[in-house]
Here is the input.
Amino acid sequence: MTAQTWTTIADLATALGTLVLAIATFSAIRSANLSARIAQRALLEGMRPVLMPSKRDDAALKVNFGDSKFVLVPGGGAAGEVGGGDGSLGSDDPVYLAVGLRNAGNGIAVLHGWHFYPEWHRDDEHAPLEEFRRQTRDLYIPVGDVGFWQGAFRVASEPQYEAARKVIEAREPWTVELLYGDHEGGQRVISKFTMLARHDSENGWFASVSRHWNIDRPDPR
Here is the structure.
């Protein structure tokens, strides 16, 4: 074979080697990226909270609203009361709301906000994020443990004050959507809870959950 033939063979061999190396590098990078995504999913799964109503046999929780007003939230239930505070944070007749919660997820739940409906709200879509009322303080619920959500309409001129007062005093159903996430502020979820009046000696409310929506990741639906 001539020198030119050997040169051509050498060039082809070099090109083939480069191609093989490129394929191997691409496969290694793709595999590394896949492993990184799997590791990230596993990490997020380990931080993901999921809120449910507390169980009937969970201890009752005493919730402080900061104006000398306390409500007692039974296991598996909720509280709704009008008035009783000292008026230091608003009117003399605020509407106080609270729900007993249990964190069934793998990470600490931090409650960010809420949206109230003066009815048994059955819509398949949650309220727009901009319509959620921000919590005045962060509420933390540990993994596998119980906690509570609390909210109040303190001023009679608020748009939903009269509607909220009416359903609580008439002991009609009411719904609240809770916005929460993990302790780093991610993996936000909206969960819808509906309260139905109890007609027994405790005179409280039953709490149930009907829907969860993912905000920062694909929704399963």
User: Anything to note?
Assistant: Residues 3-45 form the longest helix (43 residues). The mean pLDDT is 84. The first strand starts at residue 51 and ends at 53.
